[in-house]
Amino acid sequence: MGGEKLEVGIYIILTSHEWESILF
User: In Å, how far are 4, 7, 13, 15 from 21, measured between CA atoms?
Assistant: First the structure.
């Protein structure tokens, strides 16, 4: 379970970074 949460966290951070690149 911990590993899955970590993967989800990394995925969210990566997608958030991409959204920042698109918006800004």
Answer: 26, 21, 12, 10
pTM, 2 dp? 0.41
Task: Say how far apart CA 15 and CA 3 lie, in whole Å.
Answer: 18
What is the rounded CA–CA span in Å between residue 11 and residue 18?
A: 11
pLDDT tens string 1-24: 677 888 888 888 888 877 777 766
SS3 16: helix
Q: How far apart are CA 5 and CA 18, in angstroms?
A: 20
